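Q: Hi! New to this. If I give you a protein sequence and the SMILES for adenosine-5'-triphosphate, can you show me the bound structure?
A: Yes, paste them in.
Q: Okay, here:
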Amino acid sequence: MATQASRAAGRLMISPAVILLFLWMIVPLGMTIWFSFLRYNLLIPGGETFAGFENYHYFFTDPNFWPALWNTLTLVLGVLLITTVGGILLALLLDQPMFGQGIVRVLVIAPFFVMPTVSALVWKNMFMNPVNGLFAWIARTLGFAPFDFLSAAPLFSIILIVAWQWLPFATLILLTALQSLDSEQLEAAEMDGAGPVSRFFYIMLPHLARAATVVILIQTIFLLSVFAEILVTTNGGPGNASTNLTYLVYSQSLLQYDVGLGSAGGIVAVILANIVAIFLMRMIGKNLET
Amino acid sequence: MGQIELKGVTKRFGDVEVIPPLDLQINEGEFVVFVGPSGCGKSTLLRLIAGLEDTTGGRIEIDGKDATDLRPAQRRLAMVFQSYALYPHMSVRKNIAFPLKMAKLSQAEIDKKVEGAAKVLNLSSYLDRRPGQLSGGQRQRVAIGRAIVREPAAFLFDEPLSNLDAALRVNMRLEISELHNSLKTTMIYVTHDQVEAMTMADKIVVLQAGRIEQVGTPLELYRTPKNRFVAGFIGSPKMNFIGGTEAQKHGAHEIGIRPEHITVGTSGDWQGRVTVSEHLGSDTYLHVQTDHGIINVRSAGNVDVHHGDTVWLTPETANIHKFDANGSAV
Amino acid sequence: MARTVTTQRKVIVTAIAWTIAIAIFFPILWTFLTSFKTEADAIATPPKFLFFNWTTENYTTVQGRSNYFLHFWNSVIISVGSTVAALIIAIPAAWSMAFVPGKRTKDILMWMLSTKMMPAVGVLVPIYLLFRDTGLLDTRTGLVIVLTLMNLPIVVWMLYTYFKEIPGEILEAARMDGANLTREIIYVLTPMAVPGIASTLLLNIILAWNEAFWTLNLTASKSAPLTQFIASYSSPEGLFYAKLSAASMMAIAPIIVLGWFSQKQLVRGLTFGAVK
Ligand SMILES: Nc1ncnc2c1ncn2[C@@H]1O[C@H](COP(=O)(O)OP(=O)(O)OP(=O)(O)O)[C@@H](O)[C@H]1O
Ligand SMILES: [Mg+2]
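A: Thanks. Here is the predicted structure of the protein with adenosine-5'-triphosphate bound:
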């Protein structure tokens, strides 16, 4: 399968994808870097001047920056924790024999298909609203004062909403992995005297490691840039309590029209993502090699 | 039509030289079998001829024309793969028709040829099935069908029968031999099955580490192996080798004697004790522990000796092979 | 494990699993029910579950007010268009990586995935300005371009994992049979990879349908897909629960139905070929 002709063809066939992705990565990124060194505000056309590291300085000293960084990490880790642990438990449950397994699966998978703007609005208004929301009604019925989720615990509420959207994904992947576990392995362990708990920790969990890696990798990619959920629920507030980096950059560049500052923020976000990526790539490197 | 010549053909994968410069002449209409131990380069050699791999050096000529740089499709060769390599999404009819479609034949012509091939290979009633709905032997026939419709200059087979069970293998072996007799097209056949090599070949090429050890008819290789490797490789059960003083008696560094050329009796040259006896009815295989090591013996019919018995062995002097210190026959 | 499971245990597992499944599904169910209520019933205390005056007026109101079908059509064009475009670019690339791997194939694949790591917000400003200057802002073409490039790495990765399962001998057989490269891909590889291509297609349509960063930032009205159409309900209008619910159902129903019908391929696709 490897003649010179086919190798040349191979290079030819892969080049459109490589070139397009390269351009997609390098052109806008180069422009972002360039803008990040300019004083550049869309409201003051023609006023671009070189600014050195001024934008970075402003961005890092922006009182919103550290909270945004913190919120980004909390959001990613919180959702990952809920979905991975919840996903493993749910997968174990769904792997048991039961009546109507197909329907249960259909129900569990459904939130994955719901677009972020819809799920955020539905949760915000119909569940978390302190007056008319379903949670408020439950609280009142039980004799508690209704809790104003999005004002009192905005980040936590957003974590809940996002986790609801991603739990099906984690569950399905982990369930698929669990079902591929060779039952003879478990039987062998049982013969060797391993109880259900040790079977879980010594056989099932290691078997799930690879799937969990996929779950974490893919979710992280998406979670680092959660945007719509914040936009339609809290607009990053109250204050900056639910502003993540993505939202911060968005508000600086497209709401305050400060292209220079927004670009500096964008570069910071890229660097952060790359740090995370290096960790993740190490992980896949280890777990996905077969 | 169907004469293939390799001149100094070399193949390297990175730094590893899998085929050192190699010359080989395959004549029109010949049935040539490549044999050799696993990893010796049989498949590689076949794929070089097919054009699925580039040569690192040397020339490949087909019917006297240089084919070294031709694409596989231009070489007019057909190949039957070990895994059959049928197109799983096409019916048997479409599978067989595929090369004809690629050659842009008219539909009427395609139909005629496909029907013809199906008749030859007993596939007529399966034409509308998918490969997944066929047995291993039937799949193999489809793969052959796909090869013959093109009327190639030569057929290349890479261990085509190794995925079949023993009984089917015997059948298919006969079918392929019959096919060769009726088509009279050159065939190159890779196997590591002794019996296939001996029964099917006009000419056997024994390979080791990419080198040709010997080329000859099956009986030439059996009777006059050029060296110890060929002697040990051709023939089943394997030839016994004896060195030391016993070999020196025959004026050689080492002597070889085939199991079927030893007679068992109550007196003879070598005394030994039977460690294992296998009674097949038609033959008896004995493993005998002697002063010269374990010696395998094959006797026709049933010989009534068993584990622990003491026997005497006598080699047929005419059939003793002698080798020098380099392993070459003398 | 061929072991008999007691019915009792099965019943308990069933009860727990159904409870959890319904809890997870409940927000969607509740939205569905609310979309058929009057606004008064929608915020009634205690909440009305099934016994209310079922009405479909919310759906007509929503269509009348914000031209649902335009946005639906935009969503279809954008998600299908970007997925098909990505497939056309990715199939040859994945073929090359799976069947003519070189020393750097693994690196290229990893690099492609790493472009996915680049947060969209890092390139938001230049893309926004480039689109503004080239007139691509608020056009379907613009969004198709962005989403194609955005999903390309995932499409390549998925196809690569599917293609790798196809034995190379079959492609070699096609080559021996006289197929050139284009025909080898069209007649042999693509049909054999149909299940894999289908999962890739489905998953990417869903990802693109639900994509809500670029669609929100690069469209305004005429090319806005359903994500944007719904976002407009985040204004105080959102307090009209029944209409919000109707609009939400209209936005998610097509993709939920598609998702349910193609569950099998999807589960395979969802694992990105990494889990068998
Ligand atoms: N693409 C390749 N890259 C590197 N080395 C290869 C490649 N293909 C084959 N080889 C090496 O070349 C040698 C010959 O391989 P080949 O497949 O021709 O053996 P073979 O005689 O057909 O063996 P078998 O009987 O097991 O099929 C082997 O040592 C193998 O490891
Ligand atoms: Mg081989």
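A: Residues B 42-43 surround magnesium ion (ligand 2) (CB under 6 Å). Let me know if you'd like me to explain how to read the tokens.
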